[in-house]
Amino acid sequence: MLNKVWVLPLSLFFLVACSSSSHSLSTTTDGHSILYVSDSHKIDIVDVDTNKNNIINNSIFIQSLNYDKEKKRIVAPGYSPEEKFLGLLFVEGTDLKKKSTSPFAPIHLYQYGNTYVMDSAQVLKDGKIDITQIGVYNSSTESMIKLLQVPGIVKDIIGFGSKAYISSYLSPESTQNEGVPPKSNIYELDLHSYKLRPIFHQDQKFVPFRLLFHDGYLYGVYQSANNVPIEAPQNQLIKIDPQKGVIEKTVQLPIFAKDMTLSSDGKSIFVTHFDQWGSQDLLEKPLSKVDLSTFQVDELTYPIRAVSLVSLNGKLYVGNSIDRNIVVIDEKTFKVEKTIQAEIPAMYMVKN
Prior knowledge:
The chain is mainly beta. The chain has a single domain (2-350), classed as YVTN repeat-like/Quinoprotein amine dehydrogenase (Methylamine Dehydrogenase, Chain H, 7 Propeller). The chain contains no helices and 32 strands. The strands form seven sheets. Strands 1, 11, 12, 13, 14 and 15 form a six-stranded antiparallel sheet that branches. Strands 2, 3, 4, 5 and 32 form a five-stranded antiparallel sheet that branches. Strands 6, 7, 8, 9 and 10 form a five-stranded antiparallel sheet that branches. The chain is globular and about 50 Å long. The N and C termini lie far apart (42 Å). Keywords: Signal. Residues 1-24 form the signal peptide. This is YncE family protein. InterPro entries: Quino_amine_DH_bsu, WD40/YVTN_repeat-like_dom_sf. It comes from Collibacillus ludicampi.
């Protein structure tokens, strides 16, 4: 029998950026670049060219920030205990709209056309084994059209075209008393057939907590701030062939990884770091750049608490949890150019 239990992500307690597969800037009709920033409650619309701000107040606790390319709007999974709300927050211009998905409590989101793929914070229990619901949602009809299940607790959802990739971690502690091996894996969801396929032929002890897809490959980092066991390879970037189900390359990083994004030209991956205790410490070298042709790793010396990343037009925008400054870095030279000001800490940033 399946029992329900709420597993709230640590973003509730530590306001850290979630994901990552969709970070960026959007462009207004007057040609200005606009940066959408959130501190998990408010949303700040920052004009990068004029450095003007427009704050949108919001009562919903935001789990992740995403951009709906079809409807040209911000989509934020979230919840509010006070309002007894579970669902999606939509932002069009400065207008807000809420849509309940209760009892489904969305966290991560990947969009393909009018389809959203989301995971729920309401994790099911099959004995001692955690099971997460995956919801397929139609944004046109504003209805859930399919519910699926994967073993473990989902840590990230990204995608490319009609394929969504779901990284799900099932801790060894939750399975050892059941007499079964760990069932951590990355699942490919076909959004035409709704079939789930495990990427790895054998379930893994650990899986990446952050993913991105580029040029036919998945890239992943293990993360130190989400209760990953100490033996997990938290200072590695891995390259995965999703068709063969094998790790083709492992890159050693200088310190534990937190989040990552692809460069504008697709030639590098930028990785933010946390300290060995998984806290947002003030690191002297908070950011690394990994060349995808040579896999050489360069480090940026600039003490900030890097919590969110945006890559656009050769510039890297880094959210800083110490203050409201967003650091602007030239992607090729990997040098800090300037800082721009937001009205709130940039815990989340999103692009169109």
